[in-house]
TrEMBL record:
Residues 23-74, 706-725, 765-790 are annotated as: Disordered. InterPro entries: AB_hydrolase_fold. Coiled coil: none annotated. This is Integral membrane protein. The chain crosses the membrane at residues 93-111, 123-143, 186-203, 251-271, 283-304, 324-342, 362-381, 393-415, 448-465, 510-534, 554-574. Keywords: Membrane, Transmembrane, Transmembrane helix. Residues 781-790 have a biased composition (Polar residues). Residues 59-72 have a biased composition (Basic and acidic residues). SUPFAM superfamilies: alpha/beta-Hydrolases. It comes from Streptomyces agglomeratus.
Length: 790
């Protein structure tokens, strides 16, 4: 093999630019501006690419650099493409059904900045994990409502409903067959929610093997004397390796799903046995209920017992929990199926199963957890207040409330649509209907949607007026930025409108706060109305004033339609994404933002792509600098800047001193710093600026996502933030720009001449080329050290 010759820039040192794209993904050809690219390392899911001409001169191992036709002073570019981690094959469309789980997982990472509040931090984590567990129970309970209550209990128990449904023939009471008894019908229908639980376990286990099992870069054997004693959380050795916790949570949530199905079966059969059966079945029912209660307590204990371990690489697995807990729950479900299928000749299905009580308990528990989470978050925020933190530390509880609302819409929507479909031309629960319909509480929750939309429309109108006023106030400042151009009112208004719309991102805390508060209040009113009246809103208001009754009936009808439409929209969008790559890429953008964080609260959430991407970037930077001793600029756009910063935090100190960070269109402070202050807050970003050798951030006022990082340079160099880039580059037509220059907003930062100048300045600030290691066969970073955070 010929010797590898590192490239030489104009100062005689090896130089590399590692490009990381943002949300939505791209191709290596677009990133490298060359149709001929070669994969240097990686696979079809995520890989590093170079131009063919750069790779051909690099030698067989492709870790060196070319230098023949490269312009002087320009580093060799490499592109890290990670978009297939979130928007690859058609199965990603199924992740839409996991949206409430993803939102609940985000709430875990939104905790305020803390110092010395270890017990409070653990309490916050426990509350979020319990709320996430309630979402799993809610989803499986909704499946039980559809399969057991609406289909097997109500429709199959009514000859009018099941008469025209051949697929229900063997369960129908009109056939009077062996399966016609209510307990046996319920036992058959239990296959549906049990299979859904198994599917969630399978998806989580498959992604767990592919994502959480990626080993990060090992820490060095010898501690660096210059390394800070207290590392930022994202710099901990085990932060991007949550294999043990996800395995425990997956076992607990799977067991909770099986226990929920078993409880739905056992409760229905035991209620009949206490009234009409003999002592044997009554005793068996009570024993099963006690066993289910003990199983539920064990699941809650497993969820509360252990959180994340980040200060060290935790490679252990709790085999007793991950194997025995779901296995025992499945065995208990099998016993419950046998108990429910026992012959009960006199049992007749009538009315509804006790779904109102089940859903009421879930909603009440979720509301209590959200309120408790808000109290803990406020305690944490008051200890270390930060004016830049969104919603004064209440972002996590508000997001948790949003997750509960999404879960309610999905569960209520599927129940309403299935009930309407089963009842045919009638309206479930109304005179002449063939079935009683879904629980009253779900109808009350659907009726709360129209008032919520009124609140959101009023908020939208307020923000529209504020945006219009801000646009008018910007006109003078915009024209002052282009003193040599002829003022153009239309051009000025267009630029001002784009800037004003981009500033709406900073209003997101108000939008989320109002939405979550209104949802909490309306949800509490719905729960109270369902429990007090026991009737749907239209009937409950029938004896009151006419306008109240009319409003209640309108809200009930419109809410039922909206919640059903929301469910259909989910299904339609998922079906389209399964078939259409473009739609799947759009969904991938949503996952790019929502699945950056590890699955610390909900194991059934879509997997964290950063647990693959961050180790990829860290290994590539460490291996290249270790082999060549050269200088490296990691260049991240949008979400890629977040991945770049997280990867730099994971580098050993010797490598970090040879790396420069260039971010553009970056949400590091504007979004992540405000919403995730404990991990990207002001103190964390300032620490990053001191640990990396040099850092520069580019931003525009027209960018709705990126913004300044607000970190001062101190005595080490200039401030991290450059002055806002002009956008557009030219106000009107010039000799250099004969056609109108576009407003770029969040895209094409590399087209600005300032980009090349800032990249060159970063390379100039890096230390000269070091001597490469003489033993390239030595594994990187022997050993690992650290303590578990419990």
């Amino acid at each position: 093999m010929p010797p590898v010759t590192p490239p030489r820039d104009d100062d005689g040192g090896a130089a590399l630019e590692l490009l990381v794209h943002g949300v939505g993904g791209t191709t290596p050809q677009e990133m490298l501006d060359d149709p001929r690219t070669v994969r240097i390392t990686g696979d079809e899911t995520a890989a590093v690419y170079r131009r063919s001409e750069d790779a051909e001169d690099a030698g067989t191992d492709r870790s060196g650099e070319p230098g023949a036709d490269r312009p002087p002073g320009r580093p060799v570019p490499e592109a890290y493409v990670w978009c297939n981690l979130t928007s690859g094959n058609g199965s990603r469309a199924l992740w839409l059904l996991l949206l409430p789980f993803m939102v609940a997982n985000l709430a875990h990472w939104m905790q305020p900045t803390t110092r010395g509040l270890t017990k409070t931090v653990r309490t916050y984590g426990v509350l979020v994990r319990l709320l996430a567990l309630s979402l799993t129970v809610l989803l499986i309970a909704a499946a039980c409502e559809v399969a057991l209550d609406l289909t097997a209990w109500q429709c199959a128990g009514s000859s009018r409903c099941s008469g025209d449904k051949s697929w229900l023939g063997f369960l129908s009471t009109a056939q009077d067959g062996w399966w016609a008894q209510p307990g046996r019908r319920l036992a058959v229908a239990a296959v549906v929610p049990a299979a859904l639980t198994g599917l969630l376990w399978y998806l989580s286990n498959r992604t767990w093997s592919a994502y959480e099992s990626q080993r990060p870069l090992p820490a060095g054997a010898e501690p660096d004397p210059d390394e800070p004693t207290a590392r930022p959380a994202l710099g901990m050795p085990g932060f991007w390796y949550g294999r043990r916790l996800v395995a425990r949570l997956r076992a607990a949530h799977t067991a909770a799903g099986f226990l929920t199905v078993a409880a739905a079966l056992a409760t229905a059969a035991a209620r009949h046995d206490r009234r009409a059966s003999g002592p044997f079945l009554e005793a068996a029912g009570r024993l099963l209920e006690l066993a289910l209660l003990a199983g539920a307590v064990l699941v809650v204990w497993v969820v509360c017992r252990r959180g994340r371990s980040e200060s060290r690489l935790d490679v252990k697995l709790d085999r007793a929990v991950t194997t025995l807990l779901p296995g025992s729950a499945l065995a208990l479900l099998a016993l419950t199926v046998l108990y429910a299928a026992w012959s009960r000749p006199g049992w007749v299905s009538d009315g509804r199963l006790p779904g109102d009580r089940t859903f009421g308990i879930i909603v009440l528990a979720q509301g209590g957890l959200v309120v408790a989470l808000a109290a803990v978050a406020l305690t944490m925020y008051r200890r270390v207040p930060d004016a830049r933190t969104a919603m004064r530390g209440l972002g996590g509880p508000a997001t948790a409330m949003l997750a509960c609302a999404l879960g309610g819409v999905m569960s209520g929507g599927v129940a309403q649509r299935v009930a309407d479909w089963l009842d045919g031309a009638g309206t479930p629960g109304e005179p002449g209907a063939t079935i009683a319909g879904p629980p009253v509480l779900l109808t009350w929750q659907a009726s709360a949607i129209p008032p919520l939309l009124v609140v959101l429309l009023a908020l939208g109108a307020f923000l529209a007026v504020r945006t219009w006023r801000a646009r008018r106030a910007m006109a003078g400042d915009i024209e002052a930025e282009y003193p040599d151009a002829e003022p153009d009112l239309v051009r000025t208004r267009r630029i001002a409108r784009i800037r004003a719309m981009a500033a709406l991102t900073d209003r997101a805390p108000a939008i989320l706060g109002v939405t979550s508060a209104a949802t909490l209040l309306l949800g509490a009113a719905a729960l109270l109305g369902a429990w007090v009246t026991g009737k749907v809103p239209g009937r409950a208001a029938a004896g009151g004033p006419d306008f109240v009754a009319s409003a209640a009936q309108a809200a009930q009808a419109l809410g039922s339609w909206l919640i059903g439409f929301g469910f259909i929209l989910f299904v339609t969008w998922g079906r389209r994404a399964y078939r259409d790559a473009a739609a799947r890429r759009t969904i991938g953008i949503l996952w790019d933002v929502g699945t950056f964080w590890p699955r610390a609260a909900h194991p059934f959430a879509p997997p964290c792509y950063a647990e693959r991407a961050v180790p990829d970037l860290t290994w590539r930077m460490a291996s290249w600098t270790d082999h060549t001793g050269g200088r490296l600029v990691i260049s991240g756009h949008s979400q890629g800047s977040v991945l770049a910063a997280a990867a730099v935090w994971q580098l050993p100190p010797r490598t970090r001193r040879r790396v420069a960070l260039l971010t553009y269109g970056s949400p590091l402070e504007r979004l992540y710093g405000r919403w995730f202050p404990a991990f990207f807050g002001t103190a964390c970003l300032e620490a990053l600026s001191h640990e990396v050798h040099c850092w520069r951030n580019l931003w525009r006022r027209t960018d709705p996502i990126g913004g300044p990082v607000r970190v001062k340079g101190g005595g080490q160099g200039p401030d991290v933030d450059r002055d806002a880039l002009k956008d557009p580059l030219a106000y009107g037509r010039t000799r250099e720009q004969p056609l109108p220059a576009p407003v770029l907003g969040h895209s094409d930062y590399q087209a600005d001449p300032a980009f090349g100048r800032e990249r060159t300045a970063l390379l100039d600030r890096l230390p000269p080329c070091a001597v490469p290691r003489q033993r390239p066969d030595t594994p990187l970073g022997q050993g690992s050290s650290g303590r578990s955070s419990g």
